[in-house]
Amino acid sequence: MELLDGKKTSNDIKEEIAQKVIELKNQGKKTPHLAAVIVGENGASLTYVNAKVKACEKVGFESTLIKLPTSVTEDELLAKITELNTNEDIDGFIVQLPLPDHIDEHKVTLAIDPMKDVDGFHPENLGRMMLNLPCFLPATPAGILELLDRYNIETSGKDCVVIGRSHIVGSPMSVLMARNTKIGNCTVTLTHSRTQNLKEITKRADIVIVALGKSEFLTADMVKEGVVVVDVGITRVKDESKKSGFKLLGDVKFDEVAAKSSYITPVPGGVGPMTIASLMLNTLQAIDMK
Question: What pTM was computed for the model?
Answer without folding.
Answer: 0.94
